[in-house]
Amino acid sequence: MSPGVRKHRSEKYVYLFKYPKRSRFIVYRRYSIEKGKEFSMSTGEERNEKIADDIGSKAYQEWLGIAAVDASQGPILFGPFAQAHLNRKLERPDSDFSKNSKRTSENATRHIIEAFGGLSLDRVTEERWEDYCNACSKDGKPPKFFNRLKELKEVLRRAHRNGLIKRLPEFRNPDPETDAGRNLEDSEVRVLIKSAIPDTAMLIELMWRQGPRPMEALQYEWSMINWKSGKHGSLSIPARISKNRRARTIPLNSQIAKLLKSRKKSSKSIY
Description:
By secondary structure, this protein is mostly helical. The chain contains nine helices and six strands; from the N terminus they run βββααααααααβββα. α2 runs antiparallel to α3, α2 packs across α5 (146-161) and α7 (198-209) runs antiparallel to α9.
């Protein structure tokens, strides 16, 4: 073992060591008798970075432990910590991400690791976030930072809970405010319902009186309604059409129940 290597290794991955001053946290290091020289690879620095990344992430989670991290072993770098956080989040038993949500989370984490991966956790500050946002904005059309900022905050909140940083930075969201339109008055909604065709009127009424998301409401079917449940019936929403991929049951109010009962069941959909 060379002098710069800490004598801290994973029990499960015997060739993995922690280098306190390298640009990445995990280094795979093994002596090859056949070749007569040392073979090393580290995440992000050698051509086999994907292999090293996979091994490193597993070992890092083992080191991170399940409870506390021994700070005496050197600074904890943002990159491996963020990757371990993402892996744990996606592998939790109660984690039920849709494909799009998983892809968004992975993509956002990749961006923030590229930007801050080589820094110790306590050096990911408001100033560095501003520098990152400014640098991205100079490359033509700036990206939307919301998801990257969300993942960044999640990682640092976990680091704060584990006692790895003393305070949580207050990051600014540089995304411009979106023009989401305005709220319609009840009288305006009634005019829309009156002028719409029956199916569209039903959709507007549902969204107005029950408050579902449009893409969810469009997939409601007669088989989801249980007239014997509750005072006016209930709607059982399956996980496949729910945004958070969790099934749930909501009671129908009297107005929606009356409207649904007045419609003919001419198709699978209620529209």
